[in-house]
Each structure stands twice: as structure tokens, then as C-alpha cells.
Amino acid sequence: MKTDLSRWLPFLRWPRLDAALLRSETVAAITVAVVMIPQSVAYASLAGMPLVTGLYAAFLPALISVLFSGSTRLSVGPSALTSVLVGTSLIGLAEPMSGNWIALVAWLALLSGGIQLAIGAMRADWVLNLVSSPVLAGFSQAAALLIIASQVPALIGLHGGLAELLNAPSLDAMALAFGIANVVFFLAAKRWLPSLPAVLIGIAVSGLVAWLSGYSAHGAVVGALPAGLPSPYWPAWPGWTQMGALVVPALVIALVSSLEMASSAKIESQHDGKRWDAGQDLIGQGAGKIAAALSGSFPTSTSFSRSAITLYSGARTGWATVLSTAIVVVVLLVLTPALQHVPRAALAAVVVVAVAGLVKPRTLQQLWRIDRVEASTALVTFAVTIITAPRIYWGVMTGVLIGLAHFLYLRLHPRIIETGLHPDGSLRDRHLWSLPLLAPHLYALRMDGELDFASASSFERAIVDHLAAHPDVRHVCLFAQPINRIDTTGVEVFLRLRKMFESQGIKLHISGIKLPVERVLERSGALYASPLLAMYRTDAEALVALAHVGEH
């Protein structure tokens, strides 16, 4: 019975918490919590939510997610990309931090969580392939630049937006000092003292200095945060118009969040030498988002950096996440008054340094060397994300559409080559390698792809065009091993070609046809016996027979 339940409740497979395990998991939990708590508060501002909801997102959603996920060391909570997607998706629909805004954010969490839950339950994780690596690279880098730009005013104490830099800028000297000092400290610690809890130290020292100097009494600080655990929350119905405006952002949040999760979960699976259960992790991510909505918070995701910290700080099970959420509970119950003195410039520094790692120009250079179409996809995604800001989700959607269009183009235009025998004994592109004909009056070809409705037209055209240009051809050999599927359209084209060959007295040779394809052709009657049809199980057998075709 437990085995059956553990399929749906993965936490039942966790080991019993003994003293040794408790020690190692507690160390990992503290290590992650000192990074997660300041980041959670900072990322809440990106989502346009009250800062305390960042702590709510680090509590119940993280706990629910780890209980239902197959990967137990994913750090679920606020993340930069998901938070900025939330904040930018709702601009123009409501006022940030208002009751209507919070309700719309909760509906975003319900929709995106429901999408992930459904995909995971149906084991349809192939949907994640819709967002390719180039699309995610282009989007994440553009989003990172937009996030940094949004944090610059708070970071340097600028009153107003970035436009004020060109028109009599007014700066808060103390905020500027807090912001720059924290950025320098975080970067220095990251390079020379990576094990130091720099974020916690920077936030704590900044809050202490702001309190002692009196800056917190008049400057831009976090302010009073409500103490206590989140109350159950159900968002009011926003109406069909606003609900319709949430569908595309929710889909993009679900896809981006799933890919953030996948990047961390695959590392954990490789580390443990186990198979990654994508469906179960999607269920956990979806459940976490729904828990976020029901606690008045915003959609959560997996943080790659915090998940790496969890894994390499010695965490062995999901107990580390349970303990880290217990630390968040303590903060919510006792320590929220200490956060009110923290300058917003210090929080901006946390965000800027965290997302700066997403800006990787060399990634685009590497893509250009690998595949210029994929590099162009990344560049277009990057550009559309910047141009359509704040509706940055259109960058992802554009990238997905370009990727699908490229995929469809390749399916409609399969690689079809005329083959020749290379000196190394392999069959290769005759024209690329300047190889002689396999035999006189022979057209030997190979198609790398399925013979279906998408490729059949190109397959037929290639043969017809070649025969029209070479009327002396008396034999056609299809090296069919790469063809692993054929549909009705493919069968119709095959039959039409056979009739054409017979009308012209051309003999068809088929080599290496796969059994599933052969069975479809046999059931359709396309492989009827004829002196003008010869079939060979292997290419070697076909080459021996083709060596003698000129003798007949």
C-alpha cells in the first residue's frame, strides 16, 4: 500500500530523520535560508507585491512543492525570471500592491500552477521542448537587463525613473552609498569568499547602519512588515476580460518556470545517478504555485543558484527544505520587525547581483558558431523581449513560434541525397564528396526522415526531377534504413512512384527497410511482387546486387 501511495506522495520514500541526518540537513537548510530570505523579499518587489509576500512564497509553496516533487533538493520559492514575468504581465490591469493586483497575481499562480499540474499528471513533459535553449537564452538575458534597469533607481537613490538621469536628477546620497557598497561587497565575496553568507551580512549590516544613523526614519527602507503566518486567501473573480489577459502570461510563466526547474533537477539526477522524473517534478511545481495563490503570494519557481547551494551544502533529502521553511516561519513570527530598517537600495543590490549572472553575451557567440538559425532565434527573442517590455512574455512566445516554424520547415524539407560509395566503405552524399555513380544508369538516394504527409511531396519531387533530368536512368535504389515511419500520404506517394517506374521500365531496389515501415507497405499492397522490384535486408547485400545492374 505504501508503495502505491509513494507514487503520488513521494515524501513517503524519504528516510526517517535520525540525529546524523538531522545535523547534515540542518546545516544545508541554514545555508540556503540565509540566501533565500533576503532574495525572497527583494523578488517580491519585482512582482509588484507587498514585500512580506516574498516570505510567504518561501514558506508554504516551498513546503508543498518538495512534498510532491521527485527531486527533493530543488529550492522552490521566488525567482527573478518568474517574479519579473508576474510584475510586467499585469501592468495596465491593476495598480501594484493593490487588492486587485494581488488577486490577479493569485489567479496567475492558479493558472500557471494548474498548467504544470496537468502536464505533470498527464506525463506530457514533452511540452517543455517547445521552449528551446536558444529561446530561453535570449529571453533570460533580455529579462536580466530589464530587471537591472528597473532596479537602478532604487540602487542609486534616484527619485523618479531612469528618465530623470537626463533631466536634473535628484539622488539620495545615503541610498547611493548603501546600493554601491552592497554591490561591491556581494561581488567581492562571490569571487574571493564564496562560502561567506554575503547577502545576509550585507542586508543585516545595512539595516543596522540605517537604524543607528536614523536613515530608516526618513529614507527609502522596507518599512513595517506584518508579523505572523499567511492567512488562507481566495482571489476575487476578475471578470472574463482580465482573465483572458492572464492566459498567455500564465502559459509563459509555466513554461519558463518548468525550464528553470528542469535545469536544476537534471543536475540533481546526474549527481545521484538516477532517472529524472519530470512528470512528478511538474506536479510538485504546480502544487507549489497553487499553494502560493491560496496563501496570498505570487507564482514560485526553482532557483538554480539556491538549488546548487542546497545540493552542494550536503543536503541529502527533502528534509533540508522542510527545515529551511521552518526558519522562514521563525522569521515571519519573530524577525519581521528587524527587516523594516533595511534600505531598499540594499534589496536592489541583491537583485542586481543575483540576475547579473544571467547576462552571458558569449552564449550568443557560441550559438552563432553552432547554428546560425538558432542564434538568430535567440537574437529575435532577445530583441522582442526588450521591444515589447513590459509585456516581455511576447519574447518567449515569439521565440517558440520561430522554433516551431523552423521545425516545420525542416520536416517539410527533409535531407534527400544521391548516394555514392566513399573510399571508407560508407554511403555518403555523392555530390558533396565527388563520388562516382554506384552503377551505370542508376539513381541511388537516401532520405533522412519519415515518409509522411510533411515529407512525401519533397521525396516525390526529388525522384521525378532527377528522372526528368536523366532519362537514361533504368534503376532507382532507395536506401531506406533512415525511414522509420510511413503514413497514408507516404504510402500513396510510394504507390504512385511504383506505377511511374513500371510505366517507364525502371526497376526499384529497396535496401534496409525497417520492419514497421515494411508492414505498413505490405498491408496497403504497395509491395506487390514484380520483376521490377528487388528488396535487400542490408546495404552490403544491395551494393553487391547493384554492382551487376549494368550487365542486364
Automatic annotation (TrEMBL):
Coiled-coil segments on the chain, per record: none
A Gene Ontology biological process term: transmembrane transport
Record bears the keyword 4Fe-4S: no
Gene3D superfamilies: STAS domain
Gene Ontology cellular component annotations, sorted alphabetically: membrane
Membrane topology: Multi-pass membrane protein
Positions of transmembrane segments: 20-37, 43-68, 75-94, 100-119, 126-149, 169-189, 196-217, 237-256, 317-335, 341-359
Ranges for domain STAS: 440-546
Keywords: Membrane, Transmembrane, Transmembrane helix
Subcellular location: Membrane
Identification of the protein by name: STAS domain-containing protein
Source organism (scientific name): Caenimonas koreensis DSM 17982
